[in-house]
Amino acid sequence: MANKLDNLKRGDGFDTHPERINREGRPKKYVSLLKESGYKLSEINDSIQVMMAMTEQELKGVSDNKNATILEKTIAGAMAKSLKNGSLYSLDTLLSRVFGKPTEKVDQTTKTDLTGKIVIEIKNSNTPLANRETDIDLIRNV
Q1: What is the maximum span of the chain, computed from C-alpha positions, in angstroms?
Q2: Average pLDDT of the residues in 25-48
């Protein structure tokens, strides 16, 4: 089994291949990019709902249409890419934006083991106990 740090010994790291560094970071999600472009959330949701009901040919028609908005082309591209790759990631992202994340059920069970001993000692005292508020004042003055 190869050591996990072997790639550092061979000189295959970022120090010898700086072109591998992703300086831009992870690409933003489609919907986040659309919101930055000035689309309202309701417009994005409406477009996603309509396009989710389209066939593959209709989505291709949106992608090829020169009059389609960037919003429509972007959503169509994301859906086509998911279909091509067999991935549900883009579709899941789009659906969760429109309908919200489904509630997740969590089964939480706890087991406690209370095998201790509680000892209560009762001691006699000459201090009287108070039954009323006025009794407390009397006891303090004693």
Answers
A1: 97
A2: 72
Identify the three-state secondary structure at position 43.
helix
Q: Does residue 3 sit within a domain?
A: no
Of 61, 55, 31, 53, which Cα lies nearest the Cα of 43? Answer: 31
Q: Residue 94's domain spans which residues? A: 26-99
Q: How many CA atoms lie within 13 A of 56 on its CB side?
A: 5
Task: Give the confidence band of 8 by pLDDT, cuts at 50, 70, 90.
Answer: low
Encoded tokens for 134: 């006025």
DSSP character at residue 18: G
* Nearest residue to 79 (alpha-carbon basis) of 31, 26, 41, 24: 31
Residue 2 lies in a domain: no
Report pTM. Answer: 0.43
- 1 domain-assigned: no
Tokens, residue 32:
């986040």
Rounded mean pLDDT of 41-54? 82
In this predicted structure, the answer to whether residue 7 has a pLDDT above a threshold of 60 is no
